[in-house]
Amino acid sequence: MNARELAGQVEQLLVRPAPWPIVQAGHPVLREPTVPYDGQLGPRTLEALLAGMRTTMREAPGVGLAAPQIGLGVAIAVVEDPGATDDDVARVRERTPLPFRVLVNPTYAPVGDERVGFFEGCLSVVGWQAVTPRWRSVRLTCTDEHGNPVDEVLTGWAARIVQHETDHLRGRLYVDVAHMRSLVSDRMAAAWAFEPSPERAAAALGFELP
Fold it and tell me: Which residues are annotated as a binding site for Fe cation?
């Protein structure tokens, strides 16, 4: 995607205020690897795009949003998590607040070999959740919206969010790696997905945790 093509797509988004529609599973843009962001947008256009992505993510509501989810095949994502309000959930899932941040051309690599499984959903797969194994800790490398390098280790729920959003930029959805026997509709989520750990769900639905 050249600069003119990307700028034209972004301008089409910006003609209407955010929140913008979120692309749903089945759309090809969610299955195509994104192109790197290398300055194709002017500073004001990029700022407006990121502000719109933040609004769209918050209004959904979600804890992350990748550019393909609004129809753009470029390697940009935004993340933000207020953290868990339940103490047991926060402890078991290692879910602490993650301030708003922008990930440009992110990649991750596992730190250690520990994997953990928890129920996970997606703004592009509305109505469903499934237990998804993820690396407990990852090393994130990317740049921020100002071009500053980022190289840090994340653990727990923040690491899960980064893996989920970075996978979007690779054309992957969480259902590609989830335990599909754990799949629950939102109507059934209260029975399993809101518990701190999916251990009871694993026993009842017949799947193994990492």
Answer: 122, 164, 168
Alpha-carbon distance of 202 to 99, in angstroms, equals 32
Architecture of domain 3-205: Alpha-Beta Complex (3.90)
Task: Report d(CA 163, CA 166) in Å as an integer.
Answer: 5
Nearest partner of 123 among 186, 191, 60, judged by Cα: 60
Per-domain boundaries in the chain: 3-205
Tell me what percent of the residues of the chain surpass a pLDDT of 70. Answer: 100
In the residue annotation, 165 being an active-site residue is answered as yes
- Check if the beta carbon of residue 80 is closer than 8 Å to that of residue 101: yes
Q: What is the pTM of this model?
A: 0.97
| Dihedral angle over CA of 49, 51, 57, 63, nearest 10 | 110
- Give the pLDDT mean for 128-153: 98
pLDDT, mean of residues 43-59 = 98
- Segment 172-192 mean pLDDT: 96
Q: What is the pLDDT of residue 3?
A: 79
Backbone φ and ψ of 190, nearest 5°: -60, -25
Active-site hit among 80, 94, 120, 165: 165
